[in-house]
Design a protein that fits this description.
heterodimer, A: alpha+beta, four-stranded mixed β-sheet, 7 helices, 21% strand, B: 9 helices, 0% strand
Chain lengths: 252, 213
């Protein structure tokens, strides 16, 4: 069973042998010395009850955040003078390990609850109306940096592919093995874009070439880079960090 | 405290009403979880040139600490709201925390430093009033700055009030530091005047009008 969503079997299918290891790692984490001092009297032998209670609260926090989310409220925007240089590189691997994607053969695959499953080239994405934003990228760790991204408004793209906008989630799969997902309300937020440019140039490799999701209303790890496929679904697809215990909604 | 069960003594008010005792201990537990998990979160991207030792933190790693922090925050906030509502509507604040005057604080600080400040159970001296009102204000500040960091888009007015996202993190840090400072002083004072501990657990009965010397 997964530590994040024990009632959903999909994650078991994804990584059956990892799930148990992850849970044990997470437990070892939550049962630090501090936790031991705090929880004298609780069942620490299994520790599962603590873990389950924390994850239940995290799911409650998903709901509370979805309720707090105002689809019309815009993230603060900045001027070019506010841009952080150099913009920090961040991933679950070192910068040198960032994937190399061939733009010429690149295709964005589209699947799930959509009318048109045609794959998209970079040129086709660039042919759609483009818009820019200078917004603050906030990492779950606490640091933040201001950057400028340009690309296709995601709601425009969802309309083009005939996405079922009553569906609950949009999932993303990336060239580096990363994956994540967001709620439909956030997907349709006016500042959620499929970013193709960083500053005046095409998105460099370290920032997610050829395309990343830019969502200023979510924490940084909900902004997947090097997106190769996206799909619309009613089953929560989870995410690389989310499945290890990070809060799924993680909205700003 | 007292085995006297005469009707007269039963009419005496408790030193600490049950709701104050309950919210006090819930708050203590929630605050310890918030501070220790907060230290772990701080360590992921330190604001200053130091980290908290791992043994002082809760959660083991960032995801675990965040899970603790955002679970305990509900307990902390709801408990504080219950306490504030009680304090405002029961007259507890008006009766026991106010007034806080500079002259009164100055007088009692001097007396306390000379170890000549009498401690009357069921009656807060000016130093206590200042400390308790101060820590309540710090908790409100910690929650406001925490909300600004947690939801900088949805609560952008709070972010603006704090002077921006990065300053909100610093405000959150110093609100924590103030609360921890209060905690240290609070524990020290309880150790100096240990008779104050039992009433916060079992309630106790306040002595009649005459003050304990």
């Amino acid at each position: 069973m997964s530590i994040l969503r024990p009632e959903r079997p999909t994650l078991d299918d994804l990584k059956p042998e990892l799930a148990d290891m992850e849970r044990r790692l997470f437990l070892r984490g939550s049962l630090s010395l501090g936790a031991l001092t705090m929880l004298t009297g609780c069942n620490l032998v299994s520790g599962n009850s603590v873990d389950k209670a924390l994850m239940a609260m995290s799911r409650w926090n998903d709901k509370a955040q979805a309720w707090l989310f105002d689809p019309n409220k815009l993230a603060q925007t900045y001027t070019r003078a506010d841009i952080t240089t150099p913009f920090p590189f961040n991933a679950f691997y070192r910068e040198a390990k960032a994937p190399v994607v061939d733009g010429a053969t690149y295709r964005l695959e589209v699947s799930g609850l959509v009318a048109d499953r045609k794959a998209w080239t970079i040129g086709e994405l660039r042919a759609l109306p483009q818009e820019s934003q200078i917004t603050r990228h906030i990492c779950v760790e606490g640091w933040s940096a201001v950057g400028e991204w340009s690309g296709v408004r995601f709601s425009t793209f969802l309309d083009r592919i005939g996405a079922d906008t009553r569906a609950r989630y949009v999932g993303f799969k990336c060239a580096d093995g990363y994956y994540s997902s967001i709620d439909m309300a956030t997907a349709r937020h006016p500042q959620t874009i499929l970013a193709l440019d960083f500053g005046d140039d095409p998105l460099p490799r370290k920032y997610g070439y050829p395309m990343k999701l830019r969502v200023p209303t979510k924490l940084g790890f909900k902004n997947p880079k090097h997106i190769g496929a996206l799909f619309v679904t009613n089953d929560n697809p989870g995410g690389y960090w989310e499945d290890q215990g990070y809060n799924w909604f993680s909205g700003s | 405290m007292s085995g006297d069960a005469s009707p007269k003594s039963r009419k005496r008010r408790a030193i600490h009403p049950s709701i104050v005792r309950l919210t006090h201990w819930i708050n203590a537990a929630a605050m310890i979880v918030m501070v220790m998990s907060g230290w772990q979160i701080y360590n992921a991207a330190p604001i200053f040139d130091f980290k908290f030792p791992a043994w002082m933190t809760l959660g083991g790693w960032l995801a675990g600490a965040i899970a603790w922090h955002f679970a305990a925050m509900w307990v902390l906030a709801i408990n504080l709201l219950v306490y504030l509502a009680y304090g405002l509507f029961s007259g507890h604040f008006r009766r026991d925390l106010l007034p806080i005057t500079p002259a009164g604080v100055w007088r009692d600080v001097k007396a306390a430093l000379a170890f000549r400040l009498p401690h009357a159970l069921g009656h807060y001296n000016a130093v206590q009033r200042l400390l308790y009102a101060g820590v309540i204000a710090l908790m409100v500040l910690a929650i406001a700055s925490g909300l600004a960091i947690w939801k900088p888009v949805q609560f952008q007015t709070l972010v603006w009030l704090m002077g921006g996202f990065d300053i909100a993190r610093v405000v959150h840090f110093f609100a924590m530091a103030g609360i921890v400072g209060f905690f240290v002083v609070h524990i020290l004072l309880v150790m100096i005047v240990p008779k104050t501990l039992a009433p916060m657990i079992v309630g106790g009965t306040a002595p009649d009008a005459e003050a304990t010397p």
